[in-house]
Amino acid sequence: MKTLKNISFFLFVFLALGFTSALYAQTPVPSAEDEVIALTYKIWKAEMNNDMVGMNKYLSDDYTEFNPTYSTRVDGKKLNVSLSEAISMNSGMILAAEMLNPNVQVYGDVAILSYNYAGVNKDNEGKMTNNKAKSTRVYVKMNGEWKLVHANFALDPMED
Amino acid sequence: MKNLKYITIIILLAVSASRTFAGDKEDVQAVLDKSIEAFNKKDYKTYWSFFADDNTEFPYVVSPLRHDAAGWKGFIEGTATLAYVNYHQQDIQIQTYNGSTAVVTGYYTFTWMEKGGQMNYQSGRTSMVLVKQDGKWLTVHMHFSKMF
Fold first, then answer.
1. CA A67 to CA B26: how far, in whole Å?
2. Sheet holding B51-58, edge to edge
3. What digits encode the pLDDT tens for the residues A126-139?
4. What 3-state DSSP class applies to A106?
5. Looking at chain A, which terminus has fewer C-beta neighbours within 10 angstroms, N or C?
6. Terminus-to-terminus CA distance in chain B, angstroms?
7. Do B127 and A69 touch (CB under 8 A)?
8. Which residues of B touch A157 (CB under 8 A)?
9. Which of A150, A155, A158 sits opposite B103 (nearest CB)?
10. Can you give the residue ranges of every domain in chain A?
11. Is the CB of residue B147 less than 8 Å away from at least one CB of chain A?
């Protein structure tokens, strides 16, 4: 009887372990490609909700940016946050933000995300505009978290 | 006396570390200089030796990303038919990460003369990413766009 109990116990442990490992095996581990694309959509969602803290928390301290608003590079997180917060006070609403043709190149702890941006904005007078751009984002994994170290947001050449 | 030894060791380590990081930026700058020199001399074999096989580009006048240098190669080697080309970068900033990645940003001018003598000029902003593979810095991505 005792032997039967022992067998039942070991069988239970064996099945439980098998079930757990099967669960782990079925949980897909997101790739770096998926992570940086998901993070970019998260940043856009924060921007759409005017959550500037949520939007800027993924910038590295030495973040640099080229954008269509200013001719020259904007250097450093502090300066970029200061400008983006000011711009957000009177910028209407972002109704849609999507990336077309996304491409991610991964080299160790670095991921380069390139895409054609497609967005729809509504200004404070209710006027709708479509935005298009070609964009590059460079993410570096620091202390286990992806940080944006550089972005080049350029108007689509066909905008001219 | 013992403290002095520790301080000396710390100073030597700090100097050594700063030289390592400064070396990365200098190495990247040297690669950029050689790459530009090769392009201006129309030495495409040398020029391509500074690129990774999977490099991508956002050219100045084209919306889609160029993959694996196919379109980019056509454009670059197409400049062989021009009478004169000169690409120049200035106000370069280099950010380095983990000794194996460099983000290079700056401004460029591109001047070329067609065989008929007509001069053309383009200027813009550029972002580049280089990674160190097998001890060599290689360009993996370039983004050219107009000045606003």
1. 27
2. B51-58, B136-146, B119-133, B101-113, B84-97
3. 899 999 999 999 99
4. strand
5. N
6. 60
7. no
8. 60-63, 146
9. A150
10. 1-29, 32-159
11. yes
List of E strands, A58-92: 59-66, 74-75
Taking a C-beta distance cutoff of 8 angstroms, is the pair A113, A103 a contact? Answer: yes
Which of these CATH numbers, 3.30.70.580, 3.20.20.70, 3.40.50.1980, 3.10.450.50, describes B2-146?
3.10.450.50
CATH fold of A32-159: Nuclear Transport Factor 2; Chain: A, (3.10.450)
Which of B118, B115, B102, B122 lies closest to B32, judged by CA?
B102
How far does the CA of residue A159 sit from the closest CA of chain B (Å)?
10
CB spacing of B143 vs A154 below 8 angstroms: yes
Going residue by residue through chain B (148 aa), what tens digit of pLDDT does each one get? Answer: 566 666 666 665 655 555 445 599 999 999 999 999 999 999 999 999 999 999 999 988 888 888 766 677 888 888 999 999 999 999 999 999 999 999 999 999 999 999 999 999 999 999 999 999 999 999 999 999 988 6
In degrees, rounded to 5, the angle at the alpha carbon of residue A11 between the alpha carbons of residues A6 and A13 is 95
Tell me which DSSP letter residue B79 carries: G
- Distance in angstroms (rounded) separating the CA atoms of residues A84 and A47: 10
Contact B67/A at CB under 8 A: yes
Residues 6+ positions from A52 with CB-CB distance below 8 Å = A46, A81, A84, A85, A88
Q: Tens of pLDDT along A5-48?
A: 666 655 555 555 555 555 555 667 889 999 999 999 999 999 99
Q: Name the 3-class secondary structure at A28.
A: coil
Give A41 to chain B, closest Cα distance, Å.
20
pLDDT classification of A144: cutoffs 50, 70, 90:
very high
Domains of chain B: which residue ranges? Answer: 2-146
The answer to whether the complex's ipTM is over 0.95 is no
